[in-house]
Amino acid sequence: MHLIKKLGLSLVIVLSSHVFAESPPVDPRQGSVDSKDFFFYSCVREYMKQNSIKIFDGSVEYGVEYSDLASIDLLTIGKAALDFASKIRKPNFDDLEHGRPAVLVLCEKESEKWRN
Q: Using an 8 Å Cβ cutoff, are 84 and 43 in contact?
């Protein structure tokens, strides 16, 4: 029985090391960014810009590169995202419990209006 436990633990360690050794996740959509996605990416980015939060994400650029949307559509969606993001309240970093609005949730819900 003791040997079985050791073998089980060894198997878990080997499998765990294999999982963590894999490459970073890749977006499975491979270029299928639609208007809903682009609104979501833009909304989050605009909120960050408006509130002087360092922009660490490149999803908007990814959306521009990998969507089939026309330039005018990208501009229209981007403007709508900017307008919506400006309506989300500013963060209050001093209030750790309630000071940060749920930006991702709000932008994702609003993005449903842009579903194709």
A: yes
Residue 67: what residue type? S
Mean pLDDT, residues 87-105 taken together: 95
Alpha-carbon gap, residue 73 to 79, rounded angstroms: 10
Residue 68: pLDDT band with limits 50, 70, 90: confident
Q: Which residues contact 31 (CB under 8 A, 6 or more apart)?
A: 66, 67
Supply the pTM of this predicted model: 0.73
| pLDDT score recorded for residue 32 | 76
DSSP-derived secondary structure for 1-60:
-HHHHHHHHHHHHHHHHHHHHSPPP--TTSS-B-HHHHHHHHHHHHHHHHTT------HH
Residue 46, by phi and psi: left (phi above 0), alpha (psi -120 to 50) or beta?
alpha
